[in-house]
Amino acid sequence: MATRKAKKIVARLESDLGPGWVLRGLVVYPSEGDTYTVAGRDVDYVLSEFVGREVVLLILPVSESEAWKICPTCGLPYPGAGCPACADDGL
Fold first, then answer.
1. Residue 78 and residue 91: Cα distance in Å, rounded?
2. What is the domain extent for residue 8?
3. Which of 15, 61, 76, 88 is the 20 to 30 Å CA partner of 31?
4. Does any domain span residue 56?
5. How many domains does the chain have?
6. What is residue 51's predicted lDDT score, i.e. its pLDDT?
7. What per-residue confidence (pLDDT) applies to 15?
8. What angle do CA 17, 21, 25 make, to 5 degrees?
């Protein structure tokens, strides 16, 4: 989907649903034992509010992304030039 179209969809959803219903921001890959965050909000926590309810989870990329690679050392996916998990561990 074109990022321009995705941005329009997100803006419309934010307008229609109000603040708090649309989680918009950079997805951050967690360190071991952590959870994914979007715009600093813990995604597991957000989803935990809806346990036992049927939901629609819609993910729209609104920016061009780099190709993700799989680290041959730790097996985790990462974007960019080097695995940040292994860099943090000094590998």
1. 15
2. 3-64
3. 61
4. yes
5. 1
6. 94
7. 83
8. 120
Say if residues 63 and 5 touch (Cβ distance below 8 Å). Answer: no
pLDDT for position 66: 62
- For every residue of 45-75, DSSP letters joined together read HHHHTTTTS---------S--PPEEE-TTT-
Where the chain has pLDDT below 70, the residues are 1-3, 19, 62-68, 88-91
Does residue 33 sit within a domain?
Answer: yes
Measured CA distances, 31 to 56, 79, 89 (Å): 27, 14, 11
Residue showing tokens 């997805």: 27
Is residue 4 helix, strand or coil?
A: helix
What is residue 89's predicted lDDT score, i.e. its pLDDT? 66
